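Quick note —
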Amino acid sequence: MKIQAAVLEEMELPMPYADSKPLKVQEIDLEGPGRGEVLIKIAAAGICHSDLSTLEGIRIRPLPMVLGHEASGVVEEVGPEVRDLKKGDHVVAVFLATCGHCEACVTGHPTLCVAGNSATAAGTLLSGERKVSRHGEELNHHSGISSFAEYATVAERSLVKIDPELPLDEAAIFGCAVLTGVGAAVNAADIEPGMTVAVIGLGGVGLSALLGVLAIGAERVIAIDTNPAKLEAARNLGATDTFDATDPDVAEAIRDATDGGVDVALELAGAGPPMQLAYEIGKRGGQMVTVGLPHPSTELKIPALSLVLEERRIRGSYMGSSVPTRDLKRFIGLYQRGRLPVDKLLTGRMPLPEVNVGMDRLHDGEAIRQIVTF
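Predicted structure written out below.
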């Protein structure tokens, strides 16, 4: 079938992207679903910092590629051996398809699935195939989804069926921002009610994490960013303290304000200095959880002796260390009961032809989560 989609041809084009247009909206060909695959009509697709990082050349992907990995939609057609979905089902796309039978999957760690991560790196679906093309030339899939398009053919294991009462434009952000941010707070960090928790990096994922920390019942929630507007957004969402990350003495200020440091520091900015800060503000016995995806050359340098003498802990968390079929249901339930107001993170909606403008707004810190609607 012929569809309209946003294709990335070249990374590291100059800004503003509204002028250089790295994402070209054009007509491409989409094949229908094969074994274990599903055709969905995209309802909404979130603009995520991972998309922006791909444009900037920080996240290296095979090109040309149909971008977009955070989405909601409606099932249009199912292929052979699809067991759990049918036409008309409302679904959220998950940016890592997992095989379901490897050691990582069966032990409850699907984010470590080798087959899923290999397919993502190669720009294919879980089957190893590509379903998008242009004039006979194969195009690559973004995280097995490619949601900046009217339709997408994806692996069934890239989708989670959701409550049809949830508006689809709101549902889109659950597949990445909420799953990653809230998941990191709930699944990866050892947060208990009454703790002091810092959240570093207040984009869509970071503010989702902040909402997750509040839902758990942390007594003191410290928000840290370089953008005053995002610090204000964090205060409006319930942060008890905010700190400007551009202050050269910010680590010392936070340690002073917390009598020695925080119980847990969640880093969601995806860069070296925020990672360093997350470790520096931890107290003795504290934990650092890093979620952001930095440039591959980024290194974290810490005083090794402090790991032992202070019993410090460092943990990485990918996709919120989530089990999507379990976590999406409970996060959506928390939202519907008013305990996880992630709809407050939505700061703009736009048609597909404006996607480059959306990337500029995200880069400039003017938006938290924007949604491309179809």
